[in-house]
Specification:
This protein has 91 residues and is an alpha+beta fold. It contains 3 helices and 5 strands. Helix 1 packs antiparallel against helix 3.
Length: 91
């Protein structure tokens, strides 16, 4: 019998839901303190995951969830890039 590959689960920092890694977007803070969206999911640095939903991204910006999880100031451009990523995937 062939074994099915185990799917990695990650927790959204806003909704606290465990979801498959492919259903989330990773935001990374590297050693230099730069915060950016990691589309590959493999960049070095401290990562935080956000659900692919505009409502969740807006909620993360209001609550500053990413600031707390990454211990860094997350600029508005990062949230704009997250929104573009979600809109690009849904269309």
């Amino acid at each position: 019998m062939a074994r099915s590959k185990k799917q990695p689960l990650r927790k959204c920092v806003v909704t606290q839901e465990m979801k498959p890694k492919k259903e989330l977007i990773r935001v990374v803070r590297n050693k230099e303190g730069h915060v950016f969206v990691d589309t590959s999911g493999k960049q070095n640095g401290r990562g935080a995951y956000v659900s692919k939903s505009l409502d969740v991204i807006n909620q993360a910006e209001q609550q500053q969830s990413l600031n707390r999880h990454l211990n860094a100031k997350v600029e508005a451009e990062v949230y704009d890039e997250l929104r573009k990523t979600v809109e690009g995937r849904s269309s």
